[in-house]
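Supplementary Note 3. Input sequence used for the single-chain structure prediction.
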Amino acid sequence: MGSGQSLSLGISVAPLWLKVRLLLPANEDPLYRISVETPWLDHIDAWLVHEGQVFRQVRGGDALAYSDRPMQYRYFAFESSMPAGETVL
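The predicted structure, written as discrete structure tokens, is reproduced below.
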């Protein structure tokens, strides 16, 4: 792993979990885009959790047909509004 702002583990790494705390300000219905710009991921799942409750679950990866991806984009990406306070991704 590097010490920069991007996480790069290479192409032959075993599956892993990544947990990120997002601390969001109080805004009027903000819309955020989450993107994992690694095109060779076969499967990727994301869960958004607020106050212990999953409020969004998204599946993607290049094993999904392009038309079935959360966004028609070459990388895994989706948009979601999120409540103010802490959301765990």
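The chain has a mean pLDDT of 86. The two ends are 20 Å apart (CA to CA).
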